Amino acid sequence: MNQDKTTKQMITEGLKSQRDMPVYNADTINKISREFEEWKNSAVSIENRKHYDITPHLLLGTDLPRGLVYSPIDIKFLDYGEDLGFPSKHPYTRGIHSNMYRGREFTIRQLSGFASPEDTNERIKFLLDNGATGINIVFDIPTIQEYDSDSPIARGQVGMGGVAVDSVNDMELLFKDVPIDKMSVSLVTHYPTNTAILFAMYLVMAERRGIPWEKLMGSVQNDIVMEEVVRGGLEFIPPRECFRTQCDNISFIRTHVPKWNCITLNGYNLREAGASAVTETSVAMANAIETLKELVERGHSAEWIAERISFFWDVASDFFVEIARLRAARRLWCRIMKYRFAADNDKAMLMRCHVQTSGLSLTSEEPMNNIVRAAYHALAAVLGGTQSLHVSSYDEAYSVPTEAASLVSLRTQQIIQEETAISAVVDPLGGSFYVESLTDELEKKILDEIDEIEKMGGIVEAINRGWLHKKITEYVHHENRMKKNLAIKIVAHNYHKLSGNRVAIDIFRYRSGVEERQRQKIENLKQRRDNTAVKKGLQKLREACLKHENVLPYCIEASRADATEGEIAQIFRETFGLWHPPVHW
Amino acid sequence: MQSDNIKIVIAILGLEPHWRGAVTVAQMLREFGVEVVYISNAFPEEIIKVAIQEDVSVVGVSSLSGGHLALGSDLIYLARKKHIKDKVVFIIGGVFPPNDYNELMNLGFDGVFGPGATGEEIYNFIRKALTAKLDYSAGKSIA
């Protein structure tokens, strides 16, 4: 592997020798081109000719110009085998499984998490009883920010926006009677440091239930972009240490929990913070590339790690762009693995993903309209070939979803699966001149942006110097201006707006007393546990942090001794030091 | 009152991880000529401290994930304690259940803004609220 070349150079060189079987021969293309010009000059009005390409502006849009109609001219170099292939074959543009949804429906994986672990446990069981096929846990603000429920900093925020987890004890309550040895569990741990803590607790919970780690299936997020760029917060560790923790987690999880996805490159939250579909994908892939490089340096095989990498994408409103982007991401990831990392193991080249439909695209005005929006987003995700799906609920602009709203999200997916026959055929839009042309263009733009990041010194450096912070802030400002001048139209929000506030839906109410109960549990825990063992465990973690040893085994040991999340996180803050992310606005 | 006399401190309330809303409002108000002091995540003590130090006329806080009632109430309590509640306009924006709009007003916020609020709405509101506060404070000092 030549380290001096960028991924783009390696892919371009690799492809040059391969693409030699265009679907359309030159004569066909010439004939169609002549007919196209003739049609354009005779049948198309002067006005439409003048504005033949228009650029639709949408929320979380990508601003790609679109022609009036697409034809073989737009994909004249298309090489079927090299660019599309059959499903389950290189480069996976058409899907990762040969029979796609006929063999395995996409997993219905609705997020759940609110109040105490006991409350969320009930919601998990409600969703499973009604046909959900996977679990997806979101944590409350203090847990995500790595403070205990009894910390003064956590006051008033415990159990808000997700479930509170302070120790292994809470992890046990959260998954009580849930068959974690039989179904996959996604833990939305967001950050590398949080993954090291919460996944450690999950592993200890499994241990206490007598479930071997080898049986556990699921995913963590473990993404530096989430910890250092996407979130707001009080304390941040430096990007280098954050990246190191991300790689520590991957190295340990891949080795000891073989069926677990050790990193989920989270494009979703970056996109929702303010990014195009291109940036969402390029940043996730640039991070994946740098991560694989680091793990190779640590002595692992890139292919072996890549088998357990997964992606998490946002699907917003630009219907065909979203479909094309998922197809482009699959193709590009295959090419990255093949040409950048010289992989020949098929499993290492699959871009497997979870999609969540865009929450930002939902409005507080006339919330029932959000059901329609989310259904289009969900449809795009399925047409794009996602492996699992969360449909955002219509009441998200007000609070976490009610049970009724969660049910509509679940039903949206079941209706697609059972009532539309969409899942009967693999990649139904493959071959569409328009979709294939968009797929090509998006792949090119994503790769160009990966190239830009690599030339800057890679994703960690791009974060360190504030390039990414700046990029998303600029995107947000640009988008706001377009919303203001109605270049972006949002029905009932800034366009076709009704006067007066007309909310007529039930809104989720937080249960009271969660904070008090969590506090009480921590107090009891601290009396019950062997505090010497906790201290010893934390001291060993401190040494590991300083000595650049893998931190995860030490987090597990501390968790076994019932150390709390806040206690473990404090060690990271003390040993790694604090970093001030660049602020742009 | 001229817009260039308006100075606002904008903060994200407590541990709230979402920053897009606060940054958006900061930028929108700046386009209206408002002087913005943006301090990212902060707790009520810090926010009130900065508000006093910077001698702002408006305090704007953002909350999306549910911390608004507890921390919002702390903020207003401290504002009263430090005697700035009568002269400074307090606004809060973010994602709130509909009933909490009234509750936040009852706590003492002058204005509550949901995800649909535009820069113009917020700016016009601030101007109106400031004029009312100035009249009120003036009336009080004469009395």
Topology of this structure?
The complex is a heterodimer of chains A (585) and B (143).
Chain A: H1 7-16, H2 26-42, H3 46-50, H4 80-84, H5 100-103, E1 107-108, E2 111-112, H6 117-129, E3 135-138, H7 141-144, H8 168-174, E4 185-188, H9 192-208, E5 218-220, H10 224-230, H11 239-256, E6 260-261, E7 263-266, H12 267-274, H13 277-297, H14 302-306, E8 309-315, H15 319-340, E9 353-357, H16 369-383, E10 388-390, H17 403-419, H18 433-456, H19 459-464, H20 467-484, H21 514-528, H22 531-546, H23 552-560, H24 565-576
Parallel strand pairs in A: 1-10, 2-3, 3-4, 4-5, 5-6, 7-8, 8-9, 9-10
Chain B: E1 7-13, H1 20-31, E2 35-42, H2 44-53, E3 58-63, H3 68-81, E4 89-94, H4 98-107, E5 111-113, H5 119-142
Parallel strand pairs in B: 1-2, 1-3, 3-4, 4-5
Helix pairs in contact in B: 2-3, 3-4
Write a brief caption for the model:
The complex is a heterodimer of chains A (585) and B (143). Chain A is α/β, with parallel strands linked by helices and 585 residues long. Chain A is built from 24 helices and 10 strands.
Please explain how this structure is put together.
The complex is a heterodimer of chains A (585) and B (143). In chain A, the strands form two sheets. Chain A has a five-stranded parallel β-sheet with strand order 1-10-9-8-7. In chain A, strands 2-3-4-5-6 form a five-stranded parallel β-sheet, covered by helices on one side. The model of chain A has no long low-confidence stretch (mean pLDDT 94). Chain A is α/β, with parallel strands linked by helices and 585 residues long. The longest helix of chain A has 24 residues, at 433-456. Chain A has helices spanning 7-16, 26-42, 46-50, 80-84, 100-103, 117-129, 141-144, 168-174, 192-208, 224-230, 239-256, 267-274, 277-297, 302-306, 319-340, 369-383, 403-419, 433-456, 459-464, 467-484, 514-528, 531-546, 552-560, 565-576; strands at residues 107-108, 111-112, 135-138, 185-188, 218-220, 260-261, 263-266, 309-315, 353-357, 388-390. By secondary structure, chain B is of the alpha/beta class. Chain B has five helices and five strands. A five-stranded parallel β-sheet of chain B has the order 2-1-3-4-5, with helices on both faces. The two termini of chain B are 23 Å apart. The chains are: A alpha/beta (585), B alpha/beta (143). At the A-B interface, helix 7, helix 12 and helix 20 of A face helix 1, strand 2 and helix 3 of B.
